[in-house]
Amino acid sequence: MAAFKHLWRNAAFRIGAIVLALLVVIAAAAPWLGTVDPAALDYSLINRPAGEQVDFALPDGDSVRHTLWMGSDSFGRDIYSRVIYGTRVSLLVAISVAVIAVSIGIFLGILAGFFQRIDALIMRLMDGLMAFPPILVAIALVAALGAQLWTVIVAVAMPEIPRVVRLVRSMVLTLRAEPFVEAAVALATPTPAILRRHILPNAFAPLIVQGTFIAASAVLTEAALSFLGLGLPADIPTWGNIMAEGRVQFSQYPGNVLFPAAFLVPTILAINLLGDGMRDALDPKFAKRTG
Amino acid sequence: MTDTSVVPTLRISGLTVALPEGADRPCAIENLDLAIAAGQTLCVVGESGSGKSVTATAVMGLLPKELRVVAGSIELHGEPLLTASKRRLRALQGQAMSMVFQEPMTALNPVMTCGDQIDELLRKHTRWPQARRRDAIVQIMQRVRLPDPARIMRSYPHQLSGGQRQRIVIAMAMILRPKLLICDEPTTALDVTTQKEILALIGELKREHGVAILFITHDMGVVAEIADHILVMHRGVPVEYGTRDAVLKTPSAGYTRMLLAAVPSMTPPAPRARPGGRPLLQGIQVEKTYQSHGWFGARKAVAALSNANIAVRRGETVGVVGESGSGKSTFARCLVRLIDPTSGEVHWADETGSVEVTSLGRHRLRAVRNRVQVIFQDPNRSLNPRQKIGESLLEGALNFGISRTQATALSRDLIEKVRLPVEALERYPSQFSGGQRQRIAIARALACKPRVLIADEAVSALDVSVQAQIMALLRDIQEELGLGIVFITHDLRVAAQLCDRVIVMHQGKVVEEGPTAELYANPRHEYTRTLLAAAPAQIA
Fold this sequence. Notes:
The model of chain A is unreliable at about 285-290 (pLDDT under 50). The longest helix of chain A has about 35 residues, at about 190-225. In chain A, α9 (about 190-225) runs parallel beside α10. Chain A has helices spanning about 1-10, 10-30, 80-115, 115-130, 135-145, 150-155, 160-175, 180-185, 190-225, 240-245, 255-280, and strands at about 50-55, 65-70. Chain A is mostly helical. A two-stranded antiparallel ribbon of chain A has the order 1-2. Chain B folds into 3 domains: about 1-95 and about 180-260, Rossmann fold; about 110-175, no CATH class; about 275-535, P-loop containing nucleotide triphosphate hydrolases (Rossmann fold), CATH 3.40.50. In chain B, β14 and β15 (about 355) form a beta hairpin. The model of chain B has no long low-confidence stretch (mean pLDDT about 90). Classes of the chains: A mainly alpha, B alpha/beta.
């Protein structure tokens, strides 16, 4: 609790946390925010302007009175509903990618840092992975595995792993030479306990921070994949594929691209602010001097 | 005090510097008065947190933003410094007053050659042509006795030794012939033999140029060697001011007396009776060679330790002394088997028998690790910052199969044994001072009931008064538990007081070994003689 109060005093963290909390609420409450089925098509309502009140024909034949807050797209789908539901996908991808990349990164990084025999092997593999542009690796993986939610998550997480491994390895190398770790070795503490008790807790702050930056970049990469048509299938709305579909008629109906972008940009900004704030507050090197 | 008929080089009157809110006390310095005449050295002495470094930075105009001068004045040759413009101050810095820092490696720019760094100063403060600047640099380098100035000018700081780097810093400080030289612990990071040379050099420069020196140190031995006047500070308050002999021989303040009494003497006490018996820890011809292998098979072997022997018996303290790079820490780490020696034997014994540990596999080694424990130098890093003290103390006991309830009871006993309150178990390391953390580290080592304790510079990072307490604590615990102690230190005074026998190491080799009193009185090896002669003067 004290740690959270300390974090809350940081303005960047506060802004990031508030914006993200709002997005989580939006994602969770999507069905109750005046939305219709995001996949529903009403061919009578193609490319309507934002703010128009219409009778929207649902797939089951019913018709509802509905306001197109952000207009409709070239298939007659409600962009507002799609953007709101897209929040779910973006947050899910952001969190899963960060968790997967950080967990695998911690595992490999600790192996590389603590056990010198496999250090070179792991690190050369990571170097190899880093030599490819991340989006290219993701494209190749999606192409190989097929476009589903889990494959996209894996494809986006994969290129992020080497950076975590490098971070963890360098921290393990520094920490294992610390006297308190050597004291634990002299006290006959088994290696797994040393890693769990002495190394990981002290490496955690920078890892959380790295995790937030990965989450931000995951949102962006997922959007880029969807935009390129390699992301999630069209029946799952994501900010990326809404923009991809709107791109063709951007000059006539710019809203199809700009409305999802208006959600994407603050999301990335908020996650980055959150990470910056945590780094400043948790890392003593960035802490303000208090004399 | 100083002659008042002439204007002193530096005069500080009534200086009070406020600390930011939330600090442990309202003022970093309170009502400080001092004066230094040309050609005089004033030593400001005090323990950490006494405000001695703040004094130096205040004079140089380098106070951190958080610290504010709230009263008083600082005058350099009668010119007020606190009200001087930034521009004027910058002109004075380096030219009229300059500073020598504690750690020469961080005081120098690592990516600039030493020659360029001195030249930069000259270009900023003079209009001399290049040839004249170069001559001046060569001249000052010769003056501070740097060998081969042409080569040193082209060298980067990391290519020089610690002593040479400090000479460069002194050369930079002195090249513009300042009237005031501020030295902030200039020899603390150096070996004793190097320290002696640097102190002699500062003394010569003082006599030659009539420079006034404000010398900040915690080391009473250094003070006795170089001071004309002494100012003793305690928690920001000046407690005593006088000539060297007056302060050292007839101190009036209680704090000064305590400080002087805490400095260990170079004369070893009379030998103690020791239980003797079989060695609890024995190292036989221990060697450690580091192999560095390049990409193309060019191998280089560095012998960090060769042919080192040691035997420690019950209730006995064996000192291992030497300067940095002598291999004493490598030896300690081999004896605890934190690193594997290249060759040789290490035996750990208890009542049940003796085990040779360099050949043991990891599991069998772990089973006997309770016999030998280690305490490290840096109290800030020897405890896990994210673990409560109680958890740290439980670790060793739990590893050796003691139940949690028993281990908890044991940790309460231990924390009392090292004279800390039981509530300490619920706190984190950051809530303790350096001396308290070192006590906790001792308690942690004792938790698995070791037979031998290896203390690697365990009191070197502590203030003298705290150091004396920890030494007394170690001795009491040794008497009570019959521990064998290996005490590794660079400090000959500490070794003299604490050790029954002393091993002297130099460049990875044991050069001499003997009972402390005998070895200090009649050093046989030449290096031991140099080392003993280099130790700062006897105080009283």
